[in-house]
Structure formats: structure tokens, C-alpha cells
Amino acid sequence: MAVTTVAQLAAELNRSASALLEQLQSAGVSKASTDDALTDADKERLLDHLRSSHGTTGGERKKITLTRKSTSEIKQADASGKARTIQVEVRKKRTFIKRDETAAVEASAAPMVDEAELQRRETEAQAQAELLRRQEAELEEKRRLREEQAKAEREAAEARQREAAEAAAKAAADASASAKAAGGKAAPAQPAAPAAAPAPVEPAKPMLRVIKAADVVDEEKQRAVELAKRRKAAEDEASAIRAMMSAPKRVLTAKKPEEAAKPEAGKEGIKGTIHKAAAAPGAPAAPGAAKPGDKKSIKSEKLSSSWADDAAKKRAVKGRTDAPAGGARAGWRAPRGGRRGERGDGGTSSFVAPVEQQVQEVHVPETISVADLAHKMSVKASEVIKQLMKLGQMVTINQQLDQETAMILVEEMGHKAVAAKLDDPEAFLEEGETEAVHELQPRAPVVTVMGHVDHGKTSLLDYIRTARVAAGEAGGITQHIGAYHVDTPRGMITFLDTPGHAAFTAMRARGAKATDIVILVVAADDGVMPQTKEAIHHAKAAGVPIVVAMNKIDKPEANIERLKSELVAEQVVPEDFGGDSPFVPVSAKTGQGIDSLLEQVLLQAEVLELRSPTEAMAKGLVIEAQLDKGRGPVATVLVQSGTLKRGDVVLAGSSYGRVRAMLDENGKPTTEAGPSIPVEIQGLTEVPQAGDEFMVLADERRAREIATFRSGKYRD
Description:
six-stranded antiparallel β-barrel, 716 residues, alpha+beta, six-stranded mixed β-sheet
């Protein structure tokens, strides 16, 4: 533990040593000189003295706040599939409060109470308990009395009911007995009318009571019967409603003309003002009625039958719109001219039977306009716009809808939506492929050389190709993707020299298998670097085998064992450690290990059994593309299957064209390229994207349609 002197404490407090000595003396700490040592107790006494002198008692509570912050990293894939590193910071805050000892002693000490107070409290508690017991006993007594009273009332009510029932039964029995007795006495005493008269008068009172009881029973029976009838009617109505709801909808059809004409003819005679029922003989004549001798009335009566016949004939004649022509209206008055006369509905109404809505199967492409969608559903565009407004979208008739929104709208309007690409001409590309079946033949492996910058990738390929490519690059670093095929004594191999893995990432993102084998070049004197790790991740994501080329082993700084341990940490295990990745030490300067490297590559190719058709139309990938000033769009493509010939119609992404010229990797013209052969083609309409698939089509018109569709889809 370090010893603090008075001088050191004065320096820390930015005060003079003499002033500090005076404060120590006033605090009761005797220090003679500035070299005397100070203990923690002396400092506490000085601090308490200063607080008391300044009028603050800071010793009541001491609070310490600790804040801890930890930072970590997590990797998560974003929407495009790329792994991104996210910084996560966790902050924890904890506060410690140290309470004063005197306060703790006061809190811990229990309050002292004298004996008299305790005795008084105990007496009050006993009195309170006694009062509670008394109240509970009173409540219990009241509850018992209420129960006994309720029980007595129930028994009295039951006794009254029994007495009433017995009295009613006895009265009924007496009435029946008296009725029998009265009937027996009346038979012999029939001649004596005055004596027999008062006999039935005596039991009149009980007879009335019997009839009233019987009426009550009958009324109850009748009420029960009516209640059962109403219940049955309600159940029948509910079952009918359920049957109607569960039954399929019926399509209402209009009546046939013959069936509709019969009731119409009957109604014509009733509605006409002339064809009225004859008045009764005694009935007074109506005001304005025709007299018997009036000629006008006779004339109208003669013409009435002819008018009715004409109306029947005119009803039979159909107009152009299948409606009765001319005399379609009932009545003897002619229709008025203009629109107002046509408002009245005559005997033949233009009734249109309701028809059930037809459910249609609507094929919804990726994008569709509101007008086209309405046409597919056979509804007006205004109905579609109205439904979209209900769904919360304000659209116009020419606005484009995405597939998901259009399918939701179709389902809301009662039709069946099917996600399809009927307008996509790419759907016809697979039809031609399935028709032709070609024989599969072995092909050369496509090998991608990957690794960190300046680890010797291009120099290794130079030695294999016996060329000087690295010297021609700017700064000795590869600026573009080089594609070469090399004929070795053991077979042909196609090499792809990647500078920055951009094309490889694009190919992998599009699901294309651009390469069969990856040669991972690692410098033995440099070890695993960031781009080396990136290359390992790309290769493992593509699912291709890795052959490790440990380059620069001729340098004295090379350390192969350290390199192997670093690669094992990156999940690349050599074969001598029990893994599946061959490690080959090579030197691009001296050529050491080059033959072993090619042998390992061909061995991996034999295990993969690479085959592809050669007589089919060519398909492959765009390795790189650029716009040349004198030649136009130029694309370096790698043929994966089939044979590419000069003059073929090529479709690559949103560009198309006819192959006007083909050059190999050495810049020499060629006429055809088989599988695993990289060539440079000219003749495309625009520059395609690196990583796009290309294919040969038989029809240039179809290639133009697909390219136009793709460009429009990407633009939308």
C-alpha cells in the first residue's frame, strides 16, 4: 500500500502545504512537517472536519454508480443474401448505496415499550376479541331464526296446498254422488212435478265449483296444446331456414313465351277500361255511361272486340329486341309520344331474371394493369377501382398492380386467382428443351483459380500455359477475368482466373454453377489472408471441391505447417489430417509440383463424372462483358453444354443478337466452341451483365420478344 505524505496530498488538492497543515491541525491531526505520512483515518478526519465547517453532513449516504459496457459482433444475412457484421453494444448500470452506520444502528434497534403500555394493549386486544365473538354469535342466532321462519312458512304453504287439493277432491266426489242420487230420485217421481222441482236446486253451488275446476283443467290442456303447436311451427321454420341456407343457389330462368302469354291474356281483359263486368239489373247507371240508344256507344262496343284482337296480334309479333311491338301496353288508350309516355309499364314488363355470378379462373401475371384485370374478370374497370378503394388503395385505370395485390383483389371479388406467367415468353423456352434428347459425353472440368492478391494465381497459370500474361497487366495485377483452356497430356482443363470474385458472386447468387473445381492459391510465406477466407466461403457456398496450391515454397520464409494449421482453422482440412482437400506444394517460378497439381485436378474431375451434350444448342454463362470502341458489345462466354457456332442467335439476359465473330482466348478467330470452352463473341444488341445465362435459340423473333419482355420487367 502506497504511503501518502502531506506534500503529496497538497499537490493532489492544488493547495499549499502550509494551508493543508493548518487544516490538519484544526481537524485534530497533529502533523509537524510536510514529509509526515498521512493514513486513511487522518484523511477521513480531515474530510469530516471540512464538511462540518462548511455546513454539510455528507456522511449520511454514499452512492457509487458502476457502468459496464460490452461490445460484440454478430453476422446476419440481409435481403440480398450477403452476410453483414452488426455491432451489438450492451450497457449495464449498477448503483451501490452505502448507508450510515448510525442510521443502521437506529433502524436495527427495536423501540422500547414499558410494561403498562403492553398490558393496556393486551387488555384492548382481549376486549376486541370478545366483542367480535359476541357479534358472531348474534349473527348466527339471527341466521338460525330466519331459516326456522322460512321453514315454517314453507310447511304452512304446503299444508294449505294439500288442504285445498283434498277439499277440491272431496267436493268433486260429493258432487258426483249427489248427481247420481238426484238422477235416481227423479225417475219414480216424474208425475209429481211440484215435489221433483226443488231437488236439483240444492247442489247448484258445488256444481258451479266443479265446472270451474274442469274449465281450468281444459284451459291448461288447451294452452299446452297451443304451446306445443307454436314450438313445432318454430322448429319447422328454423329447419326450413337451415335447409334454404345449406341448399345450393338456383339460377332463375325466364318463363317461356307460351307460358307467359296465358296469364298476360287474362290480365289484358281485366285491365282494359272497356271490358268491365256488367252492372246488376237494379244498380243505378254510372255517370257518363252510354245510353242504350246512343250511336257512339254502340260503335265503341262494336270496335272493342276488334281492338282486343289487334292487341293480341300485335303482342304475338316480336320486335328487334324480342319485345312486343306496338300494342304491348294494356288499356284502350294509345301510348303518348316521347319518353314520358314510355315510362308506364304495361301488361308486358321488361323483367330481367337475376343470374348467378359466374366464378372465373383468372391467371394473374407478375404485373397487370387495372384495365386488363377488369377485362379478365369480365367486369367494369370502375368496379375494380371501387373495390381497391375499399381495400385502401387509390389507383387509376392504367396503373400497374403487382401480383400479390391483384390476386387479393380477384379473391375479394369472388373469382379464383391463379399465379401464372402466361404473358411471359420465357415459359416456352423449356418446351423445346424437353422435346430433344441428346447423348451425354464427358467434358473437360472448369477450374477457377482463387486466392489473395499477389499470392501468385496468374503466375501459376502462366507456367501452365507457358505464357507471360502477368507482365502485360497493369502493375502485375489481374484487371479482368481471364478464361483459358489448356491441353495437357492427361486431358484438357479450362481455367478461370478471377481477380476480385465479383463475377463468381453474381453467378452464385443466380444459382449457376460456374465452376467445377476451385484451386485455392495460398502463399506459403504469407499465410491465410482476408481474401483467402472470402474465397473459401465462396467455394463452400457453391458446393465445389477445393484443391489447395501452397505457392512460393522455394522461398526460405515458407512455413507449410503453419499454413496447414491456419487452413484447418478455416474448415479446410488436408487429406493427411483426415480431410477431403488435397494440399499440393508448388512453385510458380521453378515449376515444382505443377504436374502433381494438374493430376489432383483431373482426379477430382474423374470423381465428379462431368458430362454434357455436344450436339444440342449451346448454353452457358457470361464470364465478362464490355463495350469495345470499334467492335461494339463484346462478351466472354463459357459454354457449359452444347456447341456454339458462328451465326447462332444468342439470348443473354436482356440482350440478344446473332454471333458475327468468335475469338478464342488467344485472339484467334474460330467457328465453333464445345462444352467447357471459353470464347469471345460479338453481335449482341447491348452489353449483358456478368453472370447472366446465355442460350442459343432457333428463332430470332422469339429471342427479341424475350429480351424485350425482360428489359420491360426489370424497368417496372
